[in-house]
Amino acid sequence: MDTIASLFSFITTPVSWVIVQFHSVYGKIFGPDTGWAWGLSIVSLVILIRICLIPLFVKQIKATRAMQTLQPEMKKIQERYKNDKQRQSEEMMKLYKETGTNPLSSCLPILAQSPFFFALYHVLNGIATGSTIGVINESLLASARKAHIFGAPLAAKFTDSAAKVESLGATLTDVRVVTAIMIVMMSASQFYTQRQLMTKNVDTTVKTPFMQQQKMLMYVFPVMFAVFGINFPVGVLVYWLTTNVWTMGQQMYVIHNNPTPGSKAQAAYLDRLTKHVTQHGKIRRRSEKTIVKAIVAKGRDRNEFERKFINGLNKAGLAAQADGTVVKSDAVVATQTEDGTPATGTAAPKRQQPKRQTKAQRQSGPTKPGDSGPTTSLSKSDEPEDAKPEDAKPASAAKKAASQPGSGTRSKAQSGQRKGQQRPKSPSKK
Questions:
Q1: Angle of CA points 41, 165, 31, to nearest 5°
Q2: Lowest CB count within 10 Å: 13, 247, 269, 304, which one?
């Protein structure tokens, strides 16, 4: 163990120094030998580390979203070169290089936090074994061994024997109850953080193996914390529970204010933003302007939630601009079509349907411009004599010919022919 501690000496000394500095502050308030002084020192160490890791957390969010965007392309590469693993790896690296994506960026906060975790573990283990480490001298070591959190010493473990726990001034029951509660809380916070990420902040339009991996991790991580947690000292459990709670709150803030495009969280965020903008007529926060600017720049590539947001602004007489601001326009309103393309200008005139003609107008035929009214058909008496055919048959003969089969006339109207009085044909001249 001394060999391992010496390997981490470059980080155990700074970690022990930070804990001692916080302990000197909290010791004046709660007492130097109390569990509150040492416990809050560990909590403050976690908060300080996580504040320093915020830039890495931002990179993690960007890398995770970039990986989600690349999943369809990665799936195509896997299917195209499924029999050639080397070519598949080369195409993957080429895709990462072209898009500027680094898969390891999503693991940066965990990798950066690991040295501090191991350093704190060795500091607390030194307290449990009664050996000084870092800047913790004999007096600080004696004070830390007296510190208890809800009856459990900082250096005690769930798997410790009763004799070892008694040497630290506690009972085995108290240690196991406190450690079991902390392990359950640690696993539950990890599960909730991963679950809200999967149910609210994931693009639902993309179905890839990456989604299945995330769902699997949602159940694997809590089990890992439960299994390894029984071997962690109480002080390390305090550290890990604090960092899980910090991660959960940080994740909730990101989901609420900067959700993933295409996720349920984005739909809820844009609904809130639409109500706020239509009520006040402007966008106040810089983060909101950044999101609106990105939506306007997408154009036709907007998802259904973003198109709904743009259309909601247009209905309220507002128009989103390229710089992320929103302006009002009374005469000319910038509208957005359903496919997301902008179209400025007044509304196009509606198409007028032609006026329906009466039966008399349809029978009389089209009228010329300037006529006083529709022309009427000539009556039988007004028809000129020279227009009548010489071989016209009597009406009785025409009826008789129509009743006989095979005659040239038809007894029934053809399909689609208008019934009733028809337009008279022009008389033939002989």
A1: 30
A2: 304
